[in-house]
Design goal:
1 helix; Deoxyuridine 5'-Triphosphate Nucleotidohydrolase, Chain A; 4-stranded antiparallel beta sheet; mainly beta
């Protein structure tokens, strides 16, 4: 399958799989000196304080084929630094810039540099359902057991 892309920031490389067999393509940070961010050394480095949240640009727009979606997923290396990239869905009809919400869940400020790998883009098929309202749902072994219902082991 082909994924048409438009680089809105020509200084950044296109999204790419880091290794053969990877599910997600790496998305990078496009920093442009926008107000509201704490730029530490230059417009190419952003500091996110503990509890802080920012919406970061990727410098990328895509044309996801009909019948597919793009999923934004966090990178594990960001988590090790105390950052979390929010999950998101990119619908096939969206043609704007991909942006990624990032929160600092750690105890220390974290710096992000322009071009740094921020999140992953996973392309997957979409299943469409016909919603049918019923009086009762079929019974299962688990039933309505929710959080913690299967125990710790």
């Amino acid at each position: 399958m082909r994924l048409p892309i438009k680089r809105l920031d020509p200084t950044l490389p296109p999204p790419a799989y880091a290794r053969a067999g990877d599910a997600g393509m790496d998305l990078r940070v496009a920093l442009d000196g926008a107000e509201g961010y704490d730029y530490t050394r230059s417009p190419a480095c952003l500091r996110i304080y503990p509890g802080g949240r920012v919406l970061l640009r990727t410098g990328l727009a895509v044309a996801i084929p009909e019948g597919y979606q793009g999923e934004i997923r966090p990178r594990s290396s960001l988590f090790l630094r105390g950052l979390h990239a929010a999950h998101g869905t990119i619908d096939a009809g969206y043609r704007g810039e991909i942006r990624v919400g990032v929160a600092n869940l750690g105890r220390d400020p974290v710096e992000i540099e322009a071009g740094e790998r921020l999140a992953q883009l996973v392309i997957s098929p979409v299943a469409r359902c016909e919603v049918v309202e019923v009086a009762e749902l079929d019974a299962t072994e688990r039933g309505a057991g929710g959080f913690g219902s299967t125990g710790r082991e």
